[in-house]
Amino acid sequence: MDEKYPIGKFNWTGEIPALQREIWIEEIEKLPERLRASLEGLTELELDTPYRAGGWKIRQVVHHIADSHMNSYIRFKLALTEETPTIKPYYEDRWAELHDSVQADIELSLTLIEQLHKRWVILLKGLSESDFKKSFYHPESKETYPLDYNLGNYAWHGSHHVAHIWAGRNRIGKG
């Protein structure tokens, strides 16, 4: 198993059928529950254990999910309300080293993720076919991404990091 990409990398095929979108929306809807299950029974010391050699601590992964998914939600809103907006990239590795990512109780981010995903799913379920074709420009990659792509990428992103947590649990004998 690839420790960095335990479920593989996100594979974008371009044209996304409505059924695939529904599956991805369901994955986003269920992420908070799956995330909580992956963390159940871990001690503070275990939360401060890297999920893999050279990787973030499990605590940082949880806070990263909150940070990243907030950014994604905002990108959706920008793309829905502006004509191909240029989004603001951020240094996720630097964010993961900030005091709140290293020290804060994971419950803060778990609650945030639960509430954010409720809002996000309401938004997603109300989008039309043409809404999913709207896009934003990412100045770092110099690519324009449709919301279809962003939906799939973030459904994958949540599962990717839940797999990291399960790998971390396995490393410490709590798998």
Tag the structure with descriptive keywords.
mainly alpha, Four Helix Bundle (Hemerythrin (Met), subunit A), two-stranded antiparallel ribbon, 7 helices, 175 residues
Task: Describe the model.
The chain has 7 helices and 2 strands. The protein is globular and about 45 Å long. With 175 residues, it is mainly alpha-helical. A two-stranded antiparallel sheet has the order 1-2. Helices cover 59% and strands 5% of the residues. Helix 1 (18-39) runs antiparallel to helix 6, helix 3 (58-81) packs parallel to helix 6 and helix 3 (58-81) runs antiparallel to helix 7 (147-171). Strand 1 (135-138) and strand 2 (143-146) form a beta hairpin.
Blueprint (SSEs and pairs):
Layout: H1 18-39, H2 44-47, H3 58-81, H4 92-95, H5 99-103, H6 106-125, E1 135-138, E2 143-146, H7 147-171
Antiparallel strand pairs: 1-2
Helix pairs in contact: 1-6, 1-7, 3-6, 3-7
Low-confidence stretches: none
Strand order of the biggest β-sheet = 1-2
Total domains, how many? Answer: 1
CATH class: Mainly Alpha
- Category by helix and strand content: mainly alpha
What would the CATH topology be?
Four Helix Bundle (Hemerythrin (Met), subunit A)
Shape: globular
Question: How many beta-strand segments?
Answer: 2
Beta content comes to: under 5%
Say which CATH homologous superfamily is assigned.
dinb family like domain
What's the main sheet like?
Answer: 2 strands, antiparallel
- Rg from alpha-carbon coordinates: 16 Å
End-to-end distance: 15 Å
CATH architecture: Up-down Bundle
Percent helix, as a range, is 55-70%
> How would you describe the oligomerization state of the chains in this entry?
single chain
